[in-house]
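Good morning C.,

I know you're traveling, so I'll keep this short. The sequence:
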Amino acid sequence: MLSERRLQVLRAIVQDYVGTEEPVGSKALTERHNLGVSPATVRNDMAALEDEGFIAQPHTSAGRIPTDKGYRLFVDKLAGVKPMSAPERRAIQNFLDGAVDLDDVVARTVRLLAQLTRQVAVVQYPSLTRSTVRHVELLSLAPARVMLVLITDTGRVEQRMVDCPAPFGESSLADLRARLNSRVAGRRFTDVPQLVEDLPDAFEVEDRGTVSTVLSTLLETLVEENEERLMIGGTANLTRFGHDFPLTIRPVLEALEEQVVLLKLLGEAKDSGMTVRIGHEIAHEGLNSTSVVSVGYGSGGEAVAKLGVVGPTRMDYPGTMGAVRAVARYVGQILAES
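The tokens, ready to paste straight into the viewer:
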């Protein structure tokens, strides 16, 4: 275990390195921070921190910089989440309140996160598997053609065309709409298949084929594999951190183009708490020089998706964590009210 004083020295090194982009020396530390000990003691503490792998010396005669292990300890023990100021909170709320639909909410959230943190922002769309049905609308487009509209509790809207095996009258369609909503409205998507399996039996024999076709389309919509959608923004922000990436920024950009990689980075939505992955903790080799801060968002206290940011390990962790958490909270409020 590190002593409290050495933890203080590590905190000061991280703060100075993040702020100045320059390796930190003992003289600068004693001048800038009220550590209450002599420069010689600080040098001894820095030597001990280096021996234990929390800081490293990038060049001979240079100061020290934090390692992944040092950042990890900083985040776990030393970095409180920096609260957003009242003007910042108002700006977040005003910006997100103007959204007109779910796509707009996600697009605004990505833009806002990228601007607040000056990192790459990633926002996952609410997953259908963790959503509930708000309403199913059925619209007649032709005697044997129906539009199915599925609306979720998170504001997601899915539309499908259904070609029926036989003409289906308006009264039958209204009957199906009413019966369907009485069974599935307010229920989890995962429960829907068993809730509707015997529904065709409630209709005349000649209508059962059409009812089954509509239900098949509904169930296909619920389980479509492409439901995990993401939006990403702010990749240009990485160009400001060119010297934070050992050789080139290209592996980072290539990794960010892969949706599967990004979904793994954000993690499972059920793990709704704040997650910080640093450097080599990230399994993808192209992202070993980055850190990821993510958190779940949703309505009613349950996460339906994740959002977060990707940036260099030399990151303002308290500020980034505060921004990510604040934005997630507002997005959850918007979904709850939509």
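Safe travels,
E.
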